[in-house]
């Protein structure tokens, strides 16, 4: 369960990339996450050292279980209103009954917070802080990077006028915003003065659904002058693999062998900035730490390391 929830957090943008190992060829959701396994080991050892007995651990267990009851009930209300389209009265009547019972149990366990109930609350607070920090930090970083960027149409028009040298092969550039030119493409053209004969702008989009049907997953849009735009949609229970996307693209007409395909990735180096409040400054430090320790895109997306070129950029954050 911890592995699956972490994978979903990564896909929904609430966690940095982690190592996701698929342990079954037939079951897509059967995964293993080494980082989460290590965190669980540390948490279990800490719980044993702090509480020393299962009896002493009972207070922490009570808060954790009754808190989960309440959160599950809140989520039931949200699902009933947004997915099942229940009326407000019907949703309140159902969840309100359960909420009375849940709060009765939770209220009884609040008295146990000094005896050990603080432990799950501290763990939950740390995880919540990390998730919100990452989500907010990524949103600000994307906003900063996309400000004033060229659209693909403007860029291709500029290429048509300047006619840079074109070399054989296929280049794949990852882009968060499919309508804008990725900064790594601009850096590549600025420093290397060449472009490949075929250039793919690939955007991997996370949808707020568990899975995306295969027929709706990949959309290929030919532009002009050898440029293509690919939109690949994945649900929060799926792990995107770029080689699979390119295999589909090859079957759709974008032909290139593995030896002729180069993947260009951007690597951001975050330069400390003293802007913002005291609280936000320490959260920026946390974000920079999480960003430095995130799994590399090469490993996460299953790219062949010998076909990847990384171009760095410094961003004040």
Large-scale geometry: elongated
Order of helices and strands: HEEHHHHHEHEHEEHEHHE
- Give the total of beta strands: 8
Main β-sheet, spatial strand arrangement: 5-6-4-3-7-8
Instruction: Quickly give the structural class.
Output: alpha/beta
Contiguous helical run count: 11
Q: Note the main sheet.
A: 6 strands, mixed
Q: Give the % helix.
A: 40-55%
Radius of gyration: 24 Å
Mean pLDDT: 89
Question: Any chance you could write out the topology, listing elements then pairs?
Answer:
Blueprint: H1 2-12, E1 21-22, E2 31-32, H2 34-51, H3 54-82, H4 88-110, H5 113-146, H6 152-162, E3 165-174, H7 183-192, E4 194-206, H8 214-217, E5 218-222, E6 227-234, H9 242-251, E7 261-271, H10 278-292, H11 297-300, E8 308-316
Parallel strand pairs: 3-4, 3-7, 4-6, 7-8
Antiparallel strand pairs: 1-2, 5-6
Helix pairs in contact: 3-4, 3-5, 5-10
How would you describe the overall organization of this protein?
It is a single chain. With 317 residues, the chain is of the alpha/beta class. Helix content is 53%, strand content 19%. It has 11 helices and 8 strands. The strands form 2 sheets. It has a 6-stranded mixed β-sheet with strand order 5-6-4-3-7-8, with helices on both faces. It has a two-stranded antiparallel sheet with strand order 1-2. It is elongated.
